[in-house]
Amino acid sequence: GQNIDQPTEMTATEGAIVQINCTYQTSGFNGLFWYQQHAGEAPTFLSYNVLDGLEEKGRFSSFLSRSKGYSYLLLKELQMKDSASYLCAVRDRNYQLIWGAGTKLIIKP
Amino acid sequence: NAGVTQTPKFRILKIGQSMTLQCTQDMNHNYMYWYRQDPGMGLKLIYYSVGAGITDKGEVPNGYNVSRSTTEDFPLRLELAAPSQTSVYFCASSYEGEVQPQHFGDGTRLSIL
Asked: How far apart are CA B49 and CA B36, in angstroms?
């Protein structure tokens, strides 16, 4: 079967750095996406990785290791508005997205 | 620019009733998707479409039907609603292409009682 694993919940302090991990076992790999979802709202696109390495976008970076089936999302200079769920999704060999359950990130002052 | 619009935002149905969840997008995306999101679970794909007149089943299609008569619209039909269909339903769209992210509507919160 196909599986995406993420921690259920994480807590961090405003201004700090947090790393959210995602491991996957899927039938094929055609890219990995990270989305942000605030409570009661729609997911919004954050980043995309298809090759190994780090992709940086302002305060957010995403890393991929295809050989390890592993990715992380790194959030720097945390702000209260970053409190949200972060969803990892992998595009499989049929180009369908397989979604993790999401990591709820709680930011404390 | 409205993006992906879903109606209604909330609905309560009785067991056995039917309804259609509406989804329309104004970005001229050829790909459209319907997902359901249950608490503590990842998004599950119900149906998807790669263009007008073409639809295909996703991971959890039972109890649902779709149609795609135009590029813009992709309604989801629930026949004989069951409590197991209580969920939040998201419609999404994207361009064709590997790097293209999916854009989501605001969701429909559906309760079957």
From this structure: 16
For residue range A9-29, list pLDDT tens digits in order: 999 999 999 999 999 999 999
Instruction: Give the chain A residue nearest B49 (alpha carbons).
Output: A96
| Per-window interface: B 43-72 vs A, CB < 8 A | 43-45, 48, 58-59
Of B27, B44, B26, B22, which is closest to residue B35 (Cα–Cα)? B44
In the beta sheet, which residues pair with residue A84?
A: A105
Cis previous bond, B8, omega within 30: yes
Query: For chain B, what is the total number of helices (H) and then of strands (E)?
Result: 0, 11
Rounded to a whole number of angstroms, the distance between the first and last alpha carbons of chain A is 40
Which string of b and e fits A48-65 if b means at least 16 CB within 10 Å?
bbeeeeeeeeeebbbbbe
Task: Provide CB contacts within 8 A for A9, sequence distance 6+.
Answer: A103, A104, A105, A106
Q: Please give the Cα distance from A106 to A21 (Å, whole number).
A: 15
CA A95, B28, B65: angle at the middle one, nearest 5?
Answer: 60
Residues 6+ apart with CB under 8 A from A56: none
B34 interfaces chain A, CB cutoff of 8 Å: no
Q: Closest Cα to residue A43, out of B50, B37, B7?
A: B37
Share of chain A above pLDDT 90, in %: 90
